[in-house]
Write a structure and sequence with these properties.
Length: 305
Amino acid sequence: MADTKNKPVENKTPANEEKKKKTGGSKPDLASIGGVLVAFGGILGGLMMEGGKVTDVAQITAAFIVLGGTFGAVMISMPLPIVLGALKRFRDVFFDASVEPSGAVDEIIGYATKARKGGIVSLEAEAEKIKDPFLRKALNLAVDGTDLQELRKMMELETSIEYERTEAEAKVYESAGGYSPTIGIIGAVLGLIQVMKHLSNIEEVGHGIAVAFVATVYGVGMANIILLPAATKIKARAKRELDMRELVVEGVVGIVEGLNPKLIRSKLEAWTSGPEVKKPAKEADNKKKKEQKVAPKAPAAPAAA
């Protein structure tokens, strides 16, 4: 019989399993995958219902012209590091690696509870084990005693830079979506030029015209099914990441201020309730801070005669 006394028992309680689901790694984006399948299925299905065949639009030459021309135009219009970053970012269209807000709130509340009992210095050992680099950096700054305003400024600057970088990478796909249909027209014109060389053969002319317009289909289809939707999805991911980072900053600031964990949870609930709830709450908080900054000083008492 195997000795199981000294083996660590993995804690597989429902609460821990649920937390793993919330904070787990990358998972397939069913909306993106399903959307591509539905789009191509509808287009090819409609083609076949009209009596056409898939081979009618399977033209390697047209694909080569559209893909090569579009990619070349993007490289001319965008810096190369941004283009390479956008190619890596394409994975985010079909895989979602973001953390659920409720999972992040639970994690922050756990640190807030420990800090309230043992002081913020008690988080020093745990801060190094945090997987999220943004939260890890924010907590390390808090543990090191960084001024609260300086901490907020540093983390907001990092958030702004990352958001702008992601926006620039999304614009790569927007630009490609603008160039692609035009490159498709160029491909169609090139095909028609070849057709004009064989006007003596009517059958070959008809077939050549049909093939020539496949490039236009590729250009318009790629722009409206892949490129422009990819840009929109990347922007949506960036906005969600921006919200998550704002949540982290507010949570860490609450820990530094020594707020009650229940109060911190109540403050962060706006991020788990959706944008329509978070926006008014955030605007009210910003208005309050602005009023505190511009509040007039009390007039000095007049000197005694």
